[in-house]
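Hey, quick one: can you model this chain's 3D structure?
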Amino acid sequence: MVLFLLIVCSVPALGLLWLAWADWRLRRVKAPGWQRIVLAAMVAANVLGFGMLIASRVLEWGFEVPLALLASTFIWHIVVLPSVLLLSVGMLTGEGALWAFRKVRAKREGAQASVVAEATPPAQAKGLSRRQVLGAGLFGAPVAMQATALTAGLSQLDAFRTREIVVSLPQLPIDFEGFTIAHITDTHVGRFTYGQTLDAIVERVNALQADCIVHTGDLINDSLEDMIPAGAMLARLRSRHGTFIVEGNHDLFESRTRFASLLRTPELQAANLRLLLDEAATIERGSGRLQLLGMQWGNTMTEDVRTDRGRGPMLAEHAQILDGKRDPRAFAVLLAHHPDAFDQALRRDIPLTLAGHTHGGQLNIAEGLGPASATYRYISGLYTKQSDGGMPAACVVGNGTGNWFPLRINAPAEIIKITLRRA
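Sure thing. Here's the predicted structure for all 423 residues.
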């Protein structure tokens, strides 16, 4: 924990170091004093927000960080600061390359003095010097990026779409033709998802009148205190065959056993909610059967939720446990938090996998295409492949219905209505 805190706290420290350097550069180009004040105030506010967040979480101080400051803190330290650091390094690299080029050219022309003359334009020169332009960018770029991202983030925190996806598979029993599933995931009830947003989720899901509802993990953001509103939300969901949920990594930050016990209360059981920890649940319709296989997260049935052995072995271990729960007569649907579970499903001829975790990539160039593409094979929407047994298989990955991070770009929060068809 100490090492983790040291690493985390190095991020705002890096921001302060960058501010000191930027202030020095702005002084050199004689930038207006108000620019340095605004830049310093912005960075200081985000460092303050970071300190308040750590104090409220680690030291358990009894206060809430204001929403705007909380969102600003996340955006500054995770998006804007890395961007301005890269821009600053690029600026310094460009200045160094330009200096070297001019020096070489001056030597070649035998006019070393011209370098000094070019680097110091006469006072009578019209327009802005190169240094003034760089100084203006040094102030304008981070402020504009922060303001734009924060405005966009706050405007979309409560927004989510309903996306309809049809999955056609020949293995589907005829009695399940047209069966509908409301798929929600990554609600992250807590910092950025609460109150009226939870009411809207309930209203929108219930309006689908789905045959069943599934939640593929990260019900809460991190604190088990948020299980009270999260549980109330789940208890209000309505479908013909109930709600089924699996755990995600955020659910287990405080305690796996307590999270499970809070989902297995008499009130939630009465609301037809089932938590599946490497367990199966069967839905019967006519003479057909649909079996939901719920994959657990992390190491098996312990408080240790890390993935030290690697994601592949972790998923394989849980898939092997579920092998013993399979009903060979049923159409199997794997519920997993991590979408890489689809690979395990392909090896086992499981026709359908539902997952989340990726947030649709969160920050994308285009929907489904962004930096997350280097980490995840399955990011958003419907994927189809052939299983090892030669049968068609599908995976649906949800973008998440809530938010742990207050900004989405081309990765809208969503509820997915899945309709099963017999191909």
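One thing worth noting: The chain has two domains: 2-155, 162-421.
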